[in-house]
Design the sequence.
């Protein structure tokens, strides 16, 4: 047992226990019943989720998970656990993993930390979300903090801020993408991010008078930027593109994984993949920086379905950049965040 009083919990989204329909159904219920994901009154959310979405989507989602499932399990969980083990070997404090939905729970992670650190009274929480969104970063932090404080009341908690523009993170993304650039003379570089309903952006607007009040709101300096997902993903794209000296005319941003008929951020990735070949884009490189670990959204939605759409509509070469996963530069960068949480990277922790 470590005599250290500090521990680190790495948070990611989560996955079903298996690709069987019953497990996918259970996972979808927990995920979609989150009031920060589907933000409508509780009764309506129950009717929508349990009566319509889950019954109609569970089978299809189960097949999607099956298409990427590995012998070790869900790619997201496997990669996150491997990442945590590497980080623990690089820093001087114990590390555990918690998932926002499914297992391991924050309570499981805290129990693991307490078994490793006998005097635990400080916890670093690191959400694996580079960009702020109420349906990802915000809900993960709130959920984990609530569980920790209910079990360890006097615990001091420090939370890693969204690191969408942190220089070492940008360097990690650029280094990861660079190896793909030499493969072909790409016609376009597509940065595909998880989509959000526009109302989520407006709800997260701390000023309540900025997001979507103007067509160019993401370019107008505002306190709203601190919690503006759209501004943050545009910033990440710009910084990585500049780091790699990409032709700005070839760089595009799109948004994937939409659900329902509400107004979501556009352009939509699947629609754009169908249109690009008609615009002369035959060789395409796709990156998904919102995801630090490969998962259903990158491997199935983009690498399988997205590739099929692009090639079916006249595209010739489709390359997807793997997520940062456990790459050397990324694990070094992240371990530095944690080792230096009270010094060099103090301002990156709340």
Sequence:
């Amino acid at each position: 047992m470590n005599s250290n009083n500090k521990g680190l919990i790495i948070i990611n989204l989560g996955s079903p226990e298996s690709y069987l329909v019953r497990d996918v159904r259970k996972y979808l219920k927990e995920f979609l019943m989150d009031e920060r994901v589907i933000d409508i009154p509780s009764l309506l959310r129950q009717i929508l989720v349990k009566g319509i979405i889950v019954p109609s989507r569970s089978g299809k989602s189960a097949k999607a998970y099956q298409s990427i499932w590995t012998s070790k399990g869900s790619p997201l969980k496997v990669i996150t656990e491997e990442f945590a083990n590497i980080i623990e070997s690089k820093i001087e404090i114990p590390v555990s993993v918690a998932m926002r939905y499914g297992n391991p729970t924050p309570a499981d992670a805290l129990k693991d930390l307490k078994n490793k650190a006998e005097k635990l009274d400080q916890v670093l929480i690191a959400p694996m979300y580079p960009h702020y969104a109420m349906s990802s970063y915000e809900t993960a932090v709130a959920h984990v903090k609530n569980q920790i404080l209910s079990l360890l009341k006097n615990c001091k908690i420090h939370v890693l801020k969204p690191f969408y523009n942190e220089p070492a993170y940008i360097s990690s993304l650029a280094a990861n993408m660079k190896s793909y650039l030499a493969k072909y003379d790409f016609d376009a570089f597509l940065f595909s991010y998880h989509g959000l309903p526009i109302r989520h952006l407006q709800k997260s607007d701390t000023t309540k008078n900025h997001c979507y009040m103007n067509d160019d709101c993401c370019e107008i300096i505002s306190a709203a930027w601190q919690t503006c997902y759209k501004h943050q993903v545009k910033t990440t794209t710009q910084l990585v593109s500049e780091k790699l000296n990409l032709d700005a005319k070839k760089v595009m941003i799109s948004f994937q994984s939409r659900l329902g008929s509400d107004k979501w951020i556009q352009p939509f990735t699947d629609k754009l993949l169908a249109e690009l070949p008609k615009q002369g884009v035959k060789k395409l490189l796709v990156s998904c920086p919102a995801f630090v670990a490969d998962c259903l959204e990158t491997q199935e939605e983009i690498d399988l379905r997205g590739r099929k759409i692009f090639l079916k509509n006249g595209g010739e070469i489709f390359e997807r950049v793997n997520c940062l996963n456990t790459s050397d530069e990324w694990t070094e960068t992240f371990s530095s965040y944690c080792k230096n949480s009270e010094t060099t990277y103090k301002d990156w922790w709340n």
